Amino acid sequence: MDRERLADFLRRRREALQPEDVGLVAAARRRTPGLRREEVALLASMSSDYYTRLEQARGPQPSPQMLGAITRALHLSLTERDHLYRLGGQTPPASDVRSDHVSPGVRRVLDRIDTPAMVLNDLGEVLAQNAQAVALLGDETRFADGDLARSRVYRWFTDATARRIHPPEEHEEYSRSYTAMLHLAAGRHPDDPRTRAMVDGLRAASPEFAALWAGHDVTWRPGPERKTFLHPEVGAMQLDCEQLTAPRDGQLLLVYTATPGTDSAERLRLLEVVGHQRFADPVQAD
To answer: From CA 221, how far away is CA 223, in angstroms rounded?
Structure first.
């Protein structure tokens, strides 16, 4: 770990970003350029003290999970991400199978969307969410690398609570769509151990998945085009789902919108207020 160079790199990347670049509202007057340290810590869901110690070259060696969170907070490019990992004494994530790195351009799009939106890879792992999507679905980026539960597909078949957000009459369509998603991923990356581990784990844990997998249906879309969300705080909402793909990276940007003038639109606006009130209490680093 190169503490001095890591601190310098973090400081320079932070100072190169403006609040509007990461979806934050800028204060009227700032005495220093770029983001504040506490803003980066908030975006990375870590304590301000932990991040400050890294920038002051006196922190502990950051884990891969911490470096991944900083990568997302600072909107680093793939080259910058790999450099950050090496300065932190960690091996950069492999990028020759599928890319889990969300490009700065896609992140800028995500930050400027004023309705729930998120980026997924072809295993159903959420790579990035905006604040509105966190308010709607919870933080789906909180899972550790290597944990099968990172995938919303895996959680759908193994955790009954994952289905509460949608009414029972929509469950079968989600199940079929998620299974088709994994079939397509397995065909795209036949030698990928992550895909094999997920498929094998699901076949062992879920008879429903095993039966659907045997059918080899690859007619995939992310559930119903108009989805019903049963939010515990604001109630039921009918939201349309639009998809934008990044074929080179095998990623999908999902954007959820409500028809203007409807109860769902009003509840979506209320959800944004609720989300801002409880959004992102920073977690303390170990």
So the answer is: 6
